[in-house]
Amino acid sequence: MKYLRRYTIIGILFVLVTGTLSHFLYDWSGQSPVIGLFTPINESVWEHMKLLFFPMLLYSLLMNLKFRQRYPHIVAALFFGIIMGTILIPLLYYAYTSILGINYLILDIGVFILSIVISFWLSYQLTLSHKLENHTFVLGLSVCVLFLCFLRFTYHAPNTVIFQDPTAN
Description:
6 helices; about 170 residues; mainly alpha; single chain
């Protein structure tokens, strides 16, 4: 359990750092279309969900390889954490901006950090509890659908508010 806790804390830091760096990677890459599939291409809330989703998915692969023998249901817990963390970003963002009527960069950063911490905390707790042992397939399928949605909607976004770049006005 000590190693799982340590890897969870490292995961929080990994996603925080890689997510932050990936915010700039699209421009740093000369706006590479391939890089844009996995990193934000604009300032929309949808694109910022990638900051948590892809780094946590990558780190989850490592955690699964490291701990699947000792914690056979870790993959379901990690899938749940990825989904919840990704969903928390728009939920928290729209909650605070609806109350304040405006967004603030410092609060946006706080939403990102809080979403990461909650996603890993949930993954950790659910790994230890085995509560999701019968839901691995559905959670994995949900992560796959979200993955495909990120790929599709990066360059073919629906015309709804979550996909709109507020800086494009």
